[in-house]
Amino acid sequence: MRNRTRFLIPVLAAGLLSAACSGGGGSSTPTGPAGDGAAGGGAAAPAGGSGGAFPRNETLYTSGTQWGPPANWNPLREWDFATGTKGLVYETLFMYDPNTDKFTPWLAESGDWTGELEYTLKLRKGITWSDGKPFTADDVIFTFELGKMETVPYHPLWDWMKSAEKVDDYTIKFTFATANYQEWANHLYSRAIVPKHLWEGRSEDEVMNGVNEKPVGTGPYAYQSHDQDRMVWVKRDGWWATKALNKDVKPKYIVDIVNSSNEVAMGLLLQKGLDLSNNFLPGIANLVKGSFGIKTYYDQPPYMLPANTTWMWFNTAKKPMDDKEFRKAVAYAIDTKKIVEGVYGNLVKASDPSGLLPQWDKYVDKNVTSALGFSYNPDKAKQLLADAGYKDRNGDGLVESPSGAKISLKLIVPAGWTDWMEAARVISSSAKAAGIDIEADFPDYNALVDVRNQGKFDLVLNNDKQLANTPWLYYDYLFRLPVQKLQSTTNFGRYENKRAWELTQQLDQVKPEDVEGMKKITSELQKIQLGDMPVVPLWYNGLWSQTTDSTWKNWPTSAADAPKYPPTVWRNWLEMGGTLMLTELQPASGG
Amino acid sequence: MRRYFGRKLLIYGLTFFVAVTINWMIPRFMPGDPVQSMLSRANVAQPAAVEAMRAHYTAMFGFDLPLWQQYLNFWGALLRGDLGISIWLFPTPVSDVIIRAVPYTLGLLIPSILLSWFAGNRFGAFAARRKWLDNTVLPVGYVLTATPYMWLAILLAWALGIVAGVFPVAGAYGFDLQPSLSWGFVGSLAEHWFLPFASLFLVAFGGWAIGMRNMIIYELEADYVNYLRALGAPARLVRRYAFRNAILPQVTGLALQLGVLVAGALVTEIVFSYPGLGHLILQAIQNQDFFLLQGTFLFIVIGVLIANFVIDVAYVLVDPRTRTGMGEAA
Known about the structure:
The complex is a heterodimer.
Chain A: H1 2-6, H2 8-28, H3 36-42, E1 59-63, H4 85-89, E2 94-97, E3 102-105, E4 108-115, E5 118-123, H5 137-146, H6 157-160, E6 161-168, E7 171-176, H7 181-190, H8 196-199, H9 204-209, E8 221-227, E9 230-235, H10 240-244, E10 253-257, H11 262-270, E11 276-277, H12 284-289, E12 294-295, E13 306-314, H13 324-333, H14 336-343, E14 349-350, H15 366-372, H16 378-387, E15 409-412, H17 418-433, E16 438-441, H18 445-454, E17 459-462, H19 472-479, H20 498-508, H21 515-532, E18 535-542, E19 546-548, E20 552-553, H22 578-584, E21 586-587
Parallel strand pairs in A: 1-10, 1-11, 15-16, 15-17
Antiparallel strand pairs in A: 2-3, 4-5, 5-7, 6-7, 8-9, 9-10, 11-19, 12-19, 13-17, 13-18, 14-18, 20-21
Helix pairs in contact in A: 13-16, 14-17, 19-20, 20-21
Chain B: H1 2-29, H2 34-42, H3 47-61, H4 67-79, H5 94-127, H6 131-146, H7 149-163, H8 183-220, H9 223-231, H10 235-271, H11 277-286, H12 290-318, H13 320-329
């Protein structure tokens, strides 16, 4: 035996050695040279967190944004840049607070419509990029002109903007062909301004597809390091807002953890290893009520601020969904309360019949919604079906169409989205109770996108449109024309209503201050929407946010003296208050 | 000898070609369009911009070409060592993504495969000779080897991670650390490594122990053992001969089990959110990242083929009969 096994020893040794190398040395290479703090960690105790490179009391741990390793720091890639690229590094001209509907000048000092088709923007003086170069009008003009490249997402701006001209170093005059006031207001707080001196000369491919390592911005943080499961930002000295606005961000490090699973996020949160979790954690209500030190924006239902509406789209190009009476009957047949209570445990709120988020309540015409609005009422649903000629001819309890054709519809929801799958089952069973055969179906996400965009579905749930400064975005989502071969972001139901689309375009051209003018149009739109019911608004998804007070306090909550900013680091939310939330944080005493 | 290895290499080459072709085909037959899914996730505010972006990315990934041309381009790029760009982690090259994940997977796989094989064989042979051990090891071994990897992984994570709180349940090292050659970092790395390793090790260990135990009992009843005993050979010598013969099917078994073990490692990584290849494959499938999926499978195929080849060579060394056979053939 001794002889025969001897040859195994070198094999085994080699295996162990390579394993040891790959386990230890290998994994340290991706992030390159270790940061400053790591050297200090070397002397510390081998076990426990005390030897960490990021002292707990100076570090803010967040999660809920990244679904994969940080892959780029390109602020133009608004959907997959590393958490915080826009907001912590690159900043916007204005900040917008959706809860108070107010614009706060940020990189800009002020901005006004100086003519029907002319907007003048004044910039704040004394702002510098993190490499020391001054921030001027050239950077802003350069950023907007990047939009002339076809693949830049804000390219369509140039369909109605004529020019961006420099008046002096801190003044810019924008002139327009059509003044889409609502959309422009959205651009003012959504576009991350990039430094001309570093981005000039980049090709279209580099601009859109570039990784942009070591981003240089005007914001309060700078790149520190990243790995497969985290993104680390470090506070930089000399952020302009400290001097200009007396605002300062307290955490020295921000470590954003890549989402792995709900259990992991929940575990970290309970161990106070996470300060802010923007994950959807089912059942969090029980923990908020218990003494676990976990807080949400409201301490009672719905716990979260609303962030977007979940809509059910009818494919209006198919029978019987082309019949508005049938669509209305379905709307009356859905037991939304059961979804809100049973599926979500009151973490969400049922939607207004208009589908507009509570922050847009002022644009809802209550006369219209009370006259035309729908609510769960199976008898009314049955009545509507009977009146329109939908009858149960074969005695299976489910209606057939007036022509006698069998109705059997599928409601598709991505597989693995467990809360939505459960909601789809509720919709299916309550529709069946009213006599409408709707089956819940769970294809893979990619397959769902494919059939949805091509219009090969019956019913689909969607919540792509997020809260923003204007309800115009929602109407654009509902009524946009013309219908293309692929409907990839709007009007999945292929609903064609010229009048509604005209009104939507008119709405875009009303000044945001003119709330009455906007209301006149939104009221018309609500009449069309509720009369035709091309889509059923179901519930408001929350701005999922769970916080702990162990290291950082003064989180935004509904409490009287607490800040009211949206407590999140989600992409495109930092300019809606996320950055301001960071400036309000305070170290917990003794933490 | 040359003919033996020539034939083996030919078979490996064919397997490689077929496996890589299937790797290329499978994602393309999945329903859905990766560019559309990517843009749908992108949720661009300006719908008018989407069409231009779709055209751009479709052309960039080469999805607008006819399938046969995509296939040829794929082989062309592969031979140049270019695995493409990940769609999920755009714009990171696939090879970078894989290189970052491979150390973690190998760090789990190699020790668990070799240690479980080595320890399992030793222990099985040992247990076969002791009645009380045999009575306990056999049932435990059967339970272990019949346990699905992820099930054991979940049990371990729950018992030692959540309830006892001894080990962390996710990631490769603590969130408050940065990679460095410090005790804190290496300790954290080992702590995070232990549970996934243990779940792989235990399942495989059970299988090897049972196999070896059965083989030893069989060998101890063989004619040559009876003959040796009749000659009055010491029990030690008899056992040594039995072990040598019993180990041969276990070597073959190792070659056969490699694929299963790799698959087991993949699910284990998912359970522990361990940032290796298994984790990547799951993400690649969910995001319809053709290139990443191709790349990871390619890596696994190559790995399994190389390991099999090594076992083939080892077999020649351990089993004199193969050498004799080759000598005759040559």
